Structure formats: C-alpha cells, structure tokens
Backbone:
C-alpha cells in the first residue's frame, strides 16, 4: 500500500511537469495572490487556464486540501450559475492534480469596467449606462436567488461579450465564491460591488442606484439583503459582527 | 472525413474520430467491444452534438489514465463514462455506449505512440457507411440529449447546447 501511494505521487509529479511544459505555450496574463491566469489554445479552442499554485508557507497537506476545495468551490459556483441562466465562461476541463481550471476564453469581450470608463471618457451622459445597470441588477438578483455569493464583485469581473447593444453579461472569476442563503453574505457581496464601482468610476452613484433598484425588483428575497447592505454601509466595514 | 486532434497536454497522444451511418451490425460490434476485441470506444452517435464533446471526454480520460485514477477499467470505457453527466457507470454505458439497434456509430481511437491503432482494421469491421465527422450534429437527437443532460430552459439562453454539455462533463466530479 505504501508503494501505491508512492507511485501515485510520482504520477502526480509527472503530470505536474507535463502541465508546466504545456503552459509554456500559453501567455500568462495575470498573477494574483491566489492564482496565475494564462491564455492560449486547447483542443482547438481559445482557452484561459487558471492555475492555483502551491503556497510554500502553508503545510503541504493543508495546502493541497485547501487548494482542492477552492478549485471545486469555483467550479461548483460556475455550474450552479449556468443552470440558473447566468452567463459564465464554459468550463472545459478541471485538473485537480495541478489545480488548474481550463475555461472558455471570451474572445472580443470587454470588462464592464473598460466599457464604463470608455462611456465616461467620451463624455456621454451617465444615463447611457442605465440599461447596462439594469441588466447587472437582474443578473445579480438571479445569482443571489440561487444562493451563490460571488465574493469578488467588481466591474473587472463582469464582461460584455457582445457589442454593447445586446449586453450579454458574463460573470467571471468565481475564485472567492461560496454557497450561502444568508442575507448578510449577499449584502456584503453587493457592498463590495458598490465600493468597487464607486471607486473605479467616479460620479456613478445614480448608476449604482439603478443596479440596486433592478436587483430589488428582480429578486423576491431582496428586501432583507438590501437591509443588510444598508446596515453594513453604516458600520463601514465588511463583516457582520455576530454575537 | 475522419478527425484527428493532438491532445496538447499529452504530447504524442492523438485522438481519432470516425463516424458511420446505416450501421447494420451494431449488436455484433457491441459484443466485440465488451470482449475487448476492438481497440476503440464505440459511441452512440445520436448523443453527440459536436466533435469537441468527444475531445473533452477523451482528454479527461487520458488525464486520469496517466494518473492511474480512472473510475472505470479501461481508457475506452472511461471515455464513454466521461460523456455522462452522472457518476453512474452502467448508466453511462447504456446511454452513450453503442446499443444493439443503433444505426449511427462514432468510434474514438486514442493513439499514444505506444501502440498504433489499426484504422483500416476497425473500419473493415463496421457494416455501415463512413461519413465525415463534421456531419455529427446532423445525427444528434437533440431532444434526447437535452433530457439526458437535464439542460434547463434558462441555460439555453446563456449558451448553446454544447456549452451546457461540456460544463456538466467537466464539473461532474464535484457533484
């Protein structure tokens, strides 16, 4: 039995080396605290690979377990959102050994952040952004109704995959997401978005209001969530202090 | 006609897809496959919408094979299992593997450089007409596929059928 685990470790290490070789052909486009993002082609499709690398400061057994859990969590949230009609990148392949997620590369898509910035730069009325804001509110309501909390709602994590007219909104980066029915968690989710929105895009308070109104109208469970959002805003920090 | 794709993650490993229509000896072929006499995966072509669906299944199978972590006993049965949205192996074979009355057959061969699959040998055993793999979507039973993969109406608004299928295939381990 000991030889079995030894053999498994060797196979695992070999596999990791293969992944390393493979990713040489990819282009690394982002490095975060959690993961590295690469772009390239896989099985004939433009693909983004999200690699969660090992953290040497953690005990290796714990690190493996945590990383595995986070990877699985991310995939679970994506699938759950998709089934509920929320656009996300397609998951092509999950390598639990190397903790890599192979996702659809949304070629030609732009982030909501870039879109809003371009609208503001061209000195257009912020009212131009209202239809998009309505769509955002709708999607977030649907997501929260599925009890999926995104965990990192920013305008950089929302993409518009088709020309502005149709506003096909795609949510990305579910790395910090989790399943929760609690209004506090959903309220905090919205709070994170509000902070990110207002700090990246000055003078867009009205736009964010449209998001919230659209959210309230679209979700039956929205009242307690908005209540929590207001509570959190008054406290000024992100976590609810229970007990 | 046939489709060959190299699995980039496994250099030297190629997947070949062959498609046949008007197959008359499905029962005989299925028996041979069960006995291990055919060096390939025999798939009910009506369950496949796009060659990419097969590539994803094959890629995952080879990945697990190389890690010695397959759920089934052979690479080819693993490919069939990977097509299924559930973790029930017998159910996967029943739904995606070839059945006695099937007339459309897709054969998947994996070549990893160790042994060459004998293409002509396999083709000669099929009593049917070989057609281009690119025509696979024409053979697909969309209603049945939607039912088996339990595709929700909401999902159909955010992506095509292939997207829904691929997500379920790649995410089913966490279910």
Residues:
């Amino acid at each position: 039995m000991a030889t079995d685990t030894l053999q498994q470790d060797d196979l695992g290490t070999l596999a990791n080396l293969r992944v390393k070789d493979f990713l040489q052909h990819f282009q690394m486009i982002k490095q975060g605290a959690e993961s590295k993002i690469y772009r390239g082609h896989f099985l004939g499709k433009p693909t983004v690979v999200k690699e969660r690398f090992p953290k040497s400061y953690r005990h290796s057994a714990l690190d493996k377990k945590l990383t595995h859990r986070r990877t699985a969590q991310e995939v679970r949230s994506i699938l759950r959102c998709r089934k509920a009609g929320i656009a996300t990148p397609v998951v092509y392949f999950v390598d639990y050994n190397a903790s890599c997620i192979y996702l659809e590369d949304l070629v030609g898509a732009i982030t909501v952040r870039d879109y809003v910035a371009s609208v503001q730069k061209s000195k257009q009325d912020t009212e131009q952004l209202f239809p998009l804001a309505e769509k955002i509110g709708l999607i977030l309501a649907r997501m929260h109704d599925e009890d999926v909390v995104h965990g990192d709602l920013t305008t950089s994590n929302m993409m518009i995959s088709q020309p502005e007219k149709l506003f096909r909104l795609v949510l990305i980066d579910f790395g910090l997401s989790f399943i929760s029915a609690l209004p506090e968690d959903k309220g905090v989710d919205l709070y994170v978005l509000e902070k990110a929105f207002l700090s990246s895009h000055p003078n867009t308070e009205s736009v964010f209001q449209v998001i919230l109104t659209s959210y309230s109208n679209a979700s039956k469970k929205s009242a307690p969530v908005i209540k929590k959002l207001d509570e959190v805003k008054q406290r000024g920090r992100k976590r609810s202090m229970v007990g | 006609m046939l489709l060959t794709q190299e699995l980039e993650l496994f250099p030297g490993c190629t997947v070949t897809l062959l498609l046949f229509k008007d197959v008359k000896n499905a029962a005989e072929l299925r028996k041979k496959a069960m006995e291990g006499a055919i060096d390939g995966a025999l798939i009910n072509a009506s369950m496949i919408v796009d060659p990419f669906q097969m590539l994803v299944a094959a890629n995952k199978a080879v990945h697990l094979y190389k890690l010695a972590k397959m759920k089934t006993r052979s690479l080819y049965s693993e490919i069939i299992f990977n097509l299924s949205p559930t973790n029930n192996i017998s159910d996967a074979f029943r739904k995606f593997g070839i059945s006695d009355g099937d007339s459309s057959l897709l054969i998947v061969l994996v070549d990893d450089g160790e042994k060459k699959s004998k293409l002509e040998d396999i083709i000669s055993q099929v009593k049917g007409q070989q057609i281009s793999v690119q025509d696979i979507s024409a053979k697909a039973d969309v209603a049945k596929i939607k039912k088996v993969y339990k595709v929700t109406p909401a999902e159909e608004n955010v992506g095509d059928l292939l997207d829904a299928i691929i997500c379920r295939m790649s995410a089913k381990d966490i279910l």
